[in-house]
Amino acid sequence: MTEVLLGAYVFILAIIVGFEVIGRVPAMLHTPLMSGTNAIHGVVLVGAIVVAGQAHTFTTRILGFVAVVLGSLNVFGGFVVTDRMLEMFRPRHRERP
Amino acid sequence: MTTAIGIAYLVASLLFILGLRMLSSPVTARNGNRVAAVGMTIALGATFFQKDLSNYGLIAGAIVVGAVIGVGSARQVKMTAMPQMVAIFNGMGGGAAALVSALEFVHQTTGHATIQTSQAATIALGAAIGSISFAGSIVAFVKLQELITSSAFQFRWTKFANGLIFLALIALGGAITAGSTSRLVLGVLLGLALLLGLVLVFPIGGADMPVVIALMNSLTGLAAALTGFVLNNELLIVGGALVGASGTLLTLLMAKAMNRPVTNVLFGGFGATLSVEASLPPGVTIREISVGDAAVLMSYSHRVVIVPGYGLAVAQAQHQVRELADLLNDRGVQVKYAIHPVAGRMPGHMNVLLAEADVPYSQVYEMDAINGEFPSTDVVLVVGANDITNPGARDDPGSAIYGMPILNVDFAANIIVLKRSMRPGFAGIDNPLYYNPKTSMLFGDARDSLQRLVAAVKSQPGATSQFGQDKKPLAISR
Questions:
Q1: H-run or E-run covering B400
Q2: Cβ contact (<8 Å) for A39 and B104?
Q3: Model confidence over B137-167: pLDDT tens digits?
Q4: Which residue has the higher pLDDT, B421 or A37?
Q5: Alpha carbon distance B327, B466 (integer Å)
Q6: Does A64 contact B58 at a Cβ distance shorter than 8 Å?
Q7: What CA–CA distance (Å, rounded) separates B367 from B259?
Q8: Is pLDDT at B269 greater than 80 in this prediction?
Q9: Pick among A3, A6, A12, A44 to test the B interface (most B CBs inside 10 A)
Q10: Domain B291-458 coded CATH 3.30.465.10
Q11: SS3 for B379?
Q12: Which of B16, B26, B347 has the CB atom closest to A89's CB atom?
């Protein structure tokens, strides 16, 4: 039970931190924000690795494999796409007067 | 979990938060994303040192497969196709979360007749939410990619079916929470949740996609956090909760920008009951304008405001729009861009396109900042935007989008609308702006029209402003 309670503490505090931090992001950056957070929930890949690593039957191995592929797509695709987007938001060199 | 791995996860959590914080300014945003990526790398590396892990080859192979496909498609996708890309990656995360929950259920019930109640409840919830997000995101992707119609529609039995599936999900989740270790029950739960995601997003029209994408983002975050509870992994809880919070915030922002509650977006079948054929009210005429006239009008204006919409993305005309703006600017015309919060198909969609075309931030204005300036604007150039400029939302209580804040483009002296045809917008709603006597239509592909406008403006003599600062808005002579 204490594990669950500890988890709840972490969950609630992280939500509050999330609202505080993200509330500051200007509308201009909403797409990269969504794409960036998208990549961050790819952290579920950690969970996928754990469950794939404890699979002992053929079926669970296959499902574990699929879970890791999906999580990996999410992480790698998410970060690269966000980086491409943000590359365009670099400070302007030729800001017009 | 050993202490070293725990510390690595703690560092990763902090890097996620720091990375998100750096996303709040265009100057630091790119490095912010990289900081978060470093956190992810640390987390993944540490995970391989967990005890009782086997199948290393299988896991490494799966990561490589995902990385190759993920990086490959992320590199190739065009900026205009970004909404569907974000949607599909989001769905992958949701699917992974659902599978993690399901596999942990199998793991915990293998050789045991019982499962801890709190574990069972979280597993059921995580599996359901992850599946809904997976199916919903894929439908969103398919709609945005225009593989199926992106218009809104509604079956008579949609709400009833949704309700029924929802109740069945609660019953199955309840059974698992109550201690059922049946894999069949979990399998049916997964299947029904997939179905719910499908029927939930399928009827939603393209114009409401910003809300849908933000919501799916939030759901995947929540599902990831739930797997953290199941696996007793605080990093997953932090990562998931951060995304859940951000997705929720964006969902509410988008719904507010349309002045409709989220439930109305999800279940409203918005615009579905309206006829798709635009019928002109009797006694009104549509005015067309030639490229040459439009170019003259803008070249000799003092203030021009450009209003981009989804049509700009479809026509991939962001570079042409900037070229036109630069030319006008060189002639002494003041050019601004007006961005509606729900323009396009995801939050901030137009800003990404304008950034790709290197439009200076100082020319880009949000709705509230620019709405007061339309009365003193000579020409508004509407590029592929429809509903967000519909004065019916402001003036006509009978309009389906009545109450949605709009850009008050009809307050300007002249309005030029670049539009493919007289087809109504994605919400399927008639736009009285087009019958406004001050409005003239320039039909054709937005990119093509803009290219011709650029050429026509170039051919105008005199490159600096011929007018004093106190010039009144021009009235078009017909």
A1: none
A2: no
A3: 999 999 988 887 766 666 667 778 888 999 9
A4: A37
A5: 15
A6: yes
A7: 14
A8: no
A9: A44
A10: no
A11: strand
A12: B26
Token pair belonging to B147: 């593989």
Cβ contacts of residue B129 below 8 Å, gap of 6+? B94, B97, B98, B193, B219, B222, B223, B226
B358 assigned to active site: no
B244 touches chain A (CB under 8 A): yes
Residues 6+ apart with CB under 8 A from B218: B243, B244, B246, B247, B248, B250, B251
CB-nearest partner of A72 from B55, B62, B356: B62
C-alpha separations of B420 from A28, B277, B384, B385 in Å: 27, 15, 8, 11
Supply the DSSP symbol for A29: G
Q: Are B360 and A95 in contact (CB under 8 A)?
A: yes
**What percent of chain B stands above pLDDT 90?**
62
pLDDT confidence bin for B62, thresholds 50/70/90: very high
Output the average pLDDT for chain B: 88
User: What is the predicted pLDDT for the residue at B112?
Assistant: 78
Under 8 Å CB pairs connecting chains A and B tally to 380
Residue type, B76: Q
| Token pair listed for A92 | 């302007």
Query: In this predicted complex, what is the ipTM?
Result: 0.93
Closest CA to B225 of A51, A12, A82, A77: A12
Determine the average pLDDT of the residues in A1-18. Answer: 90
